[in-house]
Design goal:
Secreted protein, mainly alpha
Length: 64
């Protein structure tokens, strides 16, 4: 578990640096994808999923 958390933190830090630098290259996108896969295997995944589902429900309920 400790290795998984440290890898997630490493990928999160790299993703923030890449997004702030401006241009998103293929290698930067790969880091972001790997961050998503590692996040999906942590215990935070159900919380992220329910948060995204609630956000999608709110956006779907908006009337123009």
């Amino acid at each position: 578990m400790a290795v998984s958390i440290s890898v997630v933190l490493l990928f999160a830090i790299l993703a923030v640096i890449f997004v702030r630098s401006g241009g998103l290259k293929i290698s930067h996108a790969l880091v972001c994808v790997l961050l998503g896969f590692y996040l999906a295997s942590t215990s935070v995944a159900p919380t992220i999923h329910s948060g995204l589902t609630a956000t999608a429900d709110i956006v779907a309920g908006l009337r123009p």
